[in-house]
Amino acid sequence: MNNRFFSSLALRNIKSNKQLYIPFLLSSTAIISMFFLMVSLLTNKFVQERSATLPTLFMIGVVVIGLFSVIFILYTNSFLIKRRKKEIGLYGILGLEKKHIAKILFFESLFSSLLSIVAGLLTGLLFGRLAFMLLNFMLRMPDDIEYSTSLVSAGATIALFTLIFGLTYLYNVSQFTFANPIKLLKGKQEGEKEPKGSLILFILSLILLGWGYGISITIPDPLAAIEKFFLAVLLVIIGTYLLFISGSIFILKALKNNKRIYYRPGAFISISGMLYRMKQNAVGLANICILASMVIIAVSTTITINLGSAETLENQYPYEHNVRLFGDMDNVEEMNTRFFEVQDEVIALTEENGLDVAEMESYRSESFFGNLVDGRFVFKQNLLGDDSPILMMAIPLEDFNGMTGDNYTLEEDEALFYHSTKTYTEGELAIGNKNYKLTEIENEFSADMEFTESIALVVPDVSHLLDIRDDFMKEFTESNHITIDAEIGLDVEGTEEQKEQLVNRLNSEYNGGSDSFSLYQSRENQREEWYSINGGFLFLGIFLGLLFTIGTLLITYFKQVSEGFDDREKFQIMQKVGLDEDMIKESTRSQIVWMFLLPIVIATIHVSFAYPIVRKLLLIFGVTNDMTWLMTFIAVVIAFAAIYWMIYRVTSKVYYSIVK
């Protein structure tokens, strides 16, 4: 027998089992297109250029979807091969050798995988372009975000799913290699034994979930959040699978042992049915739970970023007009002269354009990195290393009092102290050749202090800034990158035309003008670009939410189909012994409610515990309002639950039609 015979037989088998293969091919196509789209987004121009954080987050998304794809296709394939055990056993009875059966399965896997991969790539390409066109039209972005992909994205997708389908082939071959044909003929009728449940796996699931939750709760700053986000996600995913596989069995067995609940017709059928199929059912529920978590996080965070655009813009540019001075000063006199001269110049330019200064703030500061070691701040020149350095900002008391309206006084050996993590509780701090007695204060500086572990030190006067810089220079003689900077911000009152003229004057004067050590930024000039960037984040969030929701739809459909085939013969037997159709619907309705609630409830718990780490990541985008995210989160959970309920209502009809 040649390969043509085996390939023809494989094609005939796929056609004759189309009721099984069509859901499998649709689901495989969907997961392939989902992965292809994620890889394409990783190389998208908008993702690459708008934020240094986005490529890292999308890389995490690619890895997570890749792991999810392995589990999902192995899960759907196990259902497919289980339904075909009788057919494979019949081949053995008819005289085909195991190597011949392996060839048939090879061609079946080859044809189905080729069809799925090609269809997945084409679907991903088509869906990506259509979705981008639709979202660009709906959101009315200033500049359209283009969908792009590459041969590298397609190659990575082909390589991964060739490997996955190779694993499914090896699994299928193993199902008949170590079994005799008679047992395979009876395999479908034998059913699954009641799962014993593993207390060790159940405890391990709680440990992994607790570990992942703990990382999120204890994360110190946004930079650490980026580093540990993938680990937390991976732990929660593994913990979710183990929880559904082991924890659900413990719950169902507890219900079974409760005689008042179990020995009722509807409960008896639904509980026993779910218990006997829970190993396969649990994987599907875990898949839905993970996708639901992805939808909620992706959509809620990007909507929060978009809603917080105005707040973010104000955090980034606290005043309408912001002038920054930077450079090296040799003495206090030179520093003061330049600092106050620029303030006078800005006020003069404002008045020349017929505007009044409504509010003005100015301060001098210097920033450097280091670590706290035994009550001393140790300078650090190289930011690389095992430990994350602490950012310290020193500011003179005169400027601090001017910023806050306070009236603090300090002796030469005293300083005001703010620590973002509040973990340093010593009453004194040595830095360079000085030792300061500390008085703790709250954050009066900037939301950026929460971006990484930071310290603000308010020193008695500006000469201390020079002393600290000199101590730093003595330690690192080849370095001159530490500078004493000044920030000047002001809001003005007047007509829009006058304000525009002031913007042009300040831009000409302090951006490449006579003062080469200055930078001017106008909030209004940055507004359009800022809203465009945040609108792009919303665009990506909706796109990912739509993508994951479609994945949820297909997985739910496949789960209902597989459960329908598993339950059909059981219900036919029960009908023969007197169980009417209404009783069947009543028993299956409880299963549907059970299956509906579990993924949503667990996903909501996951996202709730993810809040601390998500909050840190939102700080990277300048979002500091917790209430905005909370209200968005609640709205997205309700909206997704409603969509998921509609999906379940539609797919449950498929289940009922198969069972009847």
Structural overview:
Keywords: Cell membrane, Membrane, Transmembrane, Transmembrane helix, Transport. It is a multi-pass membrane protein. It comes from Jeotgalibacillus terrae. Belongs to the ABC-4 integral membrane protein family. Helix 2 packs antiparallel against helix 19. The chain has three domains: 1-190, no CATH class; 205-218 and 227-319 and 530-660, no CATH class; 327-516, no CATH class. A hairpin with a 2-residue loop joins strand 6 (428-431) and strand 7 (434-440). The chain has helices at 3-16, 18-42, 45-50, 53-83, 85-93, 98-139, 151-177, 181-190, 199-218, 222-257, 259-262, 265-276, 278-307, 309-316, 332-352, 397-404, 463-475, 496-510, 523-576, 581-620, 626-659, and strands at 321-325, 356-373, 376-379, 390-396, 414-419, 428-431, 434-440, 454-459, 484-493, 518-522. The relative contact order is 0.12. It has 21 helices and ten strands. Strands 1, 2, 3, 4, 5, 6, 7, 8, 9 and 10 form a ten-stranded mixed β-sheet that branches. It is of the alpha+beta class.
